[in-house]
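Let's sit down with a protein and look at its sequence and fold side by side. Once you have written the record down, we can walk along the chain together.
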Amino acid sequence: MSQDSWLIVGLGNPGPKYETTRHNVGQMALDVLADRIGAKFAPHSKTGSRTAEGWLRPGGPKLILAKSNGYMNTSGGPVSALCKYYGVAPNRVIAVHDEIDVPFDTIKLKQGGGHGGHNGLRDIAKALDTPDFLRVRVGVGRPPGRQDPADFVLAPFSSTERKDLPVLLEDAADACESLVEHGLTATQQRFHGRAAE
C-alpha cells in the first residue's frame, strides 16, 4: 500500500438548510469523489468532522475526504486537527470551495495566495499557519444586480444551474484526482486551457 496520503476537504455549512446552497458546492463535490473510491462518510469525533477514506486506485495514493461538522468560518480547526491526526502536510491539503470570482460551470486551481474574502479559506490558512494549501475553486459566478454576495452563496443553485451542476461536480472531482496524480501545473493546463495564472 502506498503511504502517499492526501487530505481533501469540502468546505460548507452543516445541516439540511445549507446542503443544496452554492456555499456547499465543495461538499457536494466530495460526495462524487467518495462514490468514485467506494467510501462512505462517517463521524470522526477526534476532529469534529466526517471523513471517508479510500485509494485513488489500487496501490495508489490514499485519499482522506473530510467535511467539517462546523460552519464555514470555523473550517480551520477541523482541518488542522485532521492534518495532525493523519500526519498530512499543508501542501497535501486540497480545499474544494465555492468561488464567486470564477464563472459558474468553471474550475480554477491554485496553491496559496489570498483568501479573497472567503472565510473558510481565511480560517484554514490561520489554523495551518500557512496559505500554501491547494484550492479547487468551483465557480458559482457573481450575484445578479445588487444582491449581497453573502446572500447569494447561501441560496440554492437556480433551476438552470442545477441542470449543469452534476457536470460541474464531476469536473471538480476530476480536478482533485488530477492534482493528486499529476500535480498543479498539469492540472491547471487541463482545466484552465493554458499555463498557470
Notes: Residues 46 and 106 are 35 Å apart (CA to CA). Helices lie at 25-37, 76-86, 119-128, 149-153, 159-182, 184-192.
